[in-house]
Amino acid sequence: MDIPLIPVPAGLDTELFCLGDGALIHLPEVLKRAFPDHPAFLVADENTWRAAGEKAEKILQDAGYPVAGKYIFPGNKRLHPEYEYCEMLSGKFPAGSVPLAIGSGVINDLVKCASSLVKMRYCCVPTACSVDGFTAAGAALVVNGTKKTVKCPAPKALCADVGILKTAPAEMFASGYADLLTKVPAGADWVIADIIGEEPIRQDVWDLIQGNIRKWIADKDDMLAVFDGLAATGYSMQMYQESRPASGAEHLFSHVWEMENLTRNGEDVSHGFKVGVGLLASTLLMEFILDHTFEELMPLMKPGLTREERISEIDELLKAGCYGTAPKETALGKHLEEEDLAARRQLIRRVWKDMQVRVKERLIPYSRMREILQAAGCPVTPEEIGLTEAQFLHGIKTAQLIRHRYTILDLLYELGLLDEALKTLAVMYR
Ligand SMILES: [Zn+2]
Fold first, then answer.
1. 7, part of any domain
2. Would residue 5 count as lying in a domain?
3. Which of 49, 167, 172, 214 could form a disulfide with 53 if both were Cys (CB 3.0 to 4.6 A apart)?
4. How far is the CA of 251 from the centre of ligand 1 (A)?
5. Is residue 4 part of a domain?
6. Can you give the pTM of this predicted structure?
7. What domain range includes position 77?
């Protein structure tokens, strides 16, 4: 039987990608090719077990493929990507087995990290077209209370059955689509970092995502194209060994809200819905740059802070105490003052027009992006994801502290314009 394989760029951790309607039937062959003679150890939660786990186990057994055991998380409440689960899981994998992650983003991230802890490679059977992390090098986990991307290899093989992906709740697909849309402003963030000289664009990685993104997002109902796009986004992160190609300021907002345990009506809000609202905010902040000349903005630029003043500002932003210790160090590590800040502002002034042209080229305007998200069934206001106006704005300012990665937030902060630019977000409350 021919396996529906999708080509994967050479030299990555991921070597085999089987995608198609009914693809699960090929699971034994995928495992045989990628992990000769390794018995499978299945990991799912009760929901994904029902959606695909039982069927996968039966297909393996019928094909005579050895199964070494399974671990099923309870399905009654949403599973959190806690690092401790990875340590627990890694102790359960029998030596010489191949962990098989059957689930959506969280299960995949847990198994990805757990496998890497014991130097095993794993296979992923996605059950929802919900995030771009399936094929990424790195797992989004909560470590000591802080949301982090923990470095670990992507799955060696994936077996994605569109028939199973379609059975996931529509909300999960909408969420995956929103995550794919973030590559639009994330590309603009990388342009900004490139022009400032903080992080040059790497062409092959850039082309893989930015050269195809408009095609992948063209039809919100085309699950094959969307999953293909999400998978490619993961490859780009494997190639770059970092999440930069797939993640800009909008992902940083979402990390902050996650650390604050954002819920709506008692339920966690999906990754895609958080970054979807985040990408609208990010787009508006970029439009603030596009709408003005540098000289127009000069009277609005606040003077830079001394290190002591910055420390008080950071302490105030982090006073809720739920962000761990890393953000303060990170933020102080990139603090600029006096001549350094003056030189940075001069540099930004020199590149301003070029930056406007290149950012505009990448962006989809806010009003259009909002329509696209709404049509796909995604939330578009902070309120719809459970954020008060104050928490929304606080998250955006705090997001600038948590990573070294240079984004629109750093640009605005260094110019003393972040508070001014935040005023443009008022259109999102309506
Ligand atoms: Zn994402």
1. no
2. no
3. 49
4. 6
5. no
6. 0.89
7. 16-168
